[in-house]
Design brief:
The structure is a homodimer.
Chain A: H1 9-36, H2 39-45, H3 50-53, H4 60-83, H5 89-106, H6 108-114, H7 135-152, H8 162-182, H9 198-213
Helix pairs in contact in A: 1-4, 1-6, 4-5, 4-6, 4-7, 5-6, 5-8, 5-9, 6-8, 7-8, 8-9
Chain B binds a DNA duplex through helix 1 and helix 3.
Chain lengths: 217, 217
DNA sequence: TCAAAAAGTAAACACTGTTCACCCAATTTC
DNA sequence: GAAATTGGGTGAACAGTGTTTACTTTTTGA
């Protein structure tokens, strides 16, 4: 259990090495993905032996998990920033969707890795032990709060369950993010006539998602 | 280039071995995912040497690609069957979404593998060379046709572009499918009060997706 | 029948994550 | 201060992986 912030020189040194490993891993992940991120390659980058890594991380998965957490923390910050703005509600809502997707596209390997754990691993299933505390979980609760606001203010259907709606939104965002990550030219590159930039398409998608929730008289 | 259907005894034998490999691979993929699917394990299962596999498939990726194609063919069949039904439009639309997700959940490893290729591989980006011919591409065109029908019949907004709308729908389906694949208890297991079955949630999601497209006076 | 082509194989290459026994230096305890 | 204990760091090994190469056997076609 490495204390944070580090106090003793020993802990401080340990923390420093840990950080060196993590930032080396961060670079490799960004450029070559989780498959290109090998312990040996990491060790070489920081001039240690491969086995040394295991004095700091129990396994590769554990190491990658920390990278994912940091990534979601960054997403969380960006989204939080948008939610706090004083722009009209539907603009904020659309911006959240669009921003989420753009971050994913910006760091495709990070995003893919974040959701490519072993099947049956921790997805955004609320109330699973620990999920609330994870950065992913925090991001979700922010989203949920905004949906609740939309319901309370009459923008969204009053019969909506905020938690379920938020999950549906997340799923829709996730889907587009994945599509764009795995096919950068999505939705199209050289089509019949439907020439539209990925960014524009993301806005279009965001609009549809929000529309689905809106109250209609 | 193995001809199909096979004519000569040689080709017939070759085809038989190929099929044996594929069906062994199919079983392993279903139970242990693409990571558990190793050439050596496959070879052992069919009592061949590992290198023998390479006389039938150029690489593991090539082999897996065929499994994915077969999988999408199955999806296509199911969806096609729904589209052809004479039920009300919005029922059909919702059923398509729900069915797509349920198939994914039914064969989680298949679905995950189908979309977990190298980043920047073939996603549903129309008009990329060959995409139209792939099973994935075919499935997409079926979806697009249904959306067009929805527009023409006044169920959907008349200003919609069928191709873009179809892609948005697909993204939303894909997102939920991925969520449910990676977190089987999604949307929730033991929540505060929001007890809802995954199936019910999928219906809810499908409903939202369709709503986003609907015409409102 | 005999040459050519195809099918199948063992062994190796270059990787992977992980563990083990060991060494050495720093820290803690007496 | 000396002895003992901890913790960082290492090389070598284990058990895997996809793939290639050289080689042998079988089957095919003229």
């Amino acid at each position: 259990m490495t204390a944070f912030p580090p106090t003793s020189p020993a802990e401080r040194r340990r923390h420093k090495v840990r950080t060196r490993i993590l930032s080396a891993a961060e670079t490799v992940l960004a450029s070559d993905g989780v498959d290109g991120l090998s312990i040996r390659r990491l060790a070489e980058k920081i001039d240690y032996s491969p086995s040394a890594i295991y004095k700091y991380f129990g396994s590769k998965d554990e190491l990658v998990f920390e990278l994912k957490e940091a990534f979601f923390e960054k997403i969380l910050e960006r989204i939080d920033h948008i939610v706090d703005k004083q722009t009209p509600f539907h603009v904020r809502a659309r911006d959240c969707v669009a921003t989420y997707v753009e971050i994913a596209v910006d760091k495709p390997h990070h995003y893919a890795a974040a959701f490519a754990g072993q099947i049956a691993e921790t997805g955004p299933s609320e109330d699973e032990p620990g999920f609330q505390d994870t950065k992913k979980g925090l991001a979700f609760s922010v989203l949920k709060k905004m949906v609740q606001e939309g319901i309370d203010d009459g923008h969204f259907r009053p019969d909506l369950n905020a938690s379920l709606a938020a999950k549906s939104i997340w799923a829709s965002c996730h889907g587009l993010a994945m599509m764009r990550v795995h096919a950068p030219s999505f939705p199209s590159l050289n089509p019949n006539k439907t020439t539209i930039s990925p960014e524009k398409f993301t806005e279009f998608h965001a609009d549809l998602v929000v529309r689905g929730l809106e109250f209609r008289s």
